[in-house]
Amino acid sequence: MADKIVIVHWGDAFIDCDDFDIKDAKDTRPVRRRTVGFLVAKNQHGVTLATDLYSDPAEKGQASAKMFIPKGMVERIEER
Hints:
The protein is mainly β. It has one domain (5-13, 27-79). Helices cover 0% and strands 50% of the residues. The chain has no helices and seven strands. The chain has strands at residues 5-12, 31-43, 46-50, 52-53, 63-64, 67-70, 74-79. The protein has a five-stranded antiparallel β-sheet, with no helix packed on it. A two-stranded antiparallel sheet has the order 4-5. A hairpin with a 2-residue loop joins strand 2 (31-43) and strand 3. It is elongated and about 55 Å long. The two termini are 12 Å apart.
């Protein structure tokens, strides 16, 4: 699984510190994102990606820059 490169399409949370009209809050939507990475794990809670996998045999099974995207935020996953 770890050698599979994927694009995860997902809706992200955000914060805006500017003042706003409460009646306009009903139109708020998630920020749409696409994140590319090595798929290193997928479970009932979400998906875990890494930006790098180590090639040295002594470091087999090691990765860096872990990113976890909760299942409820994932819209779809494209395999490459």
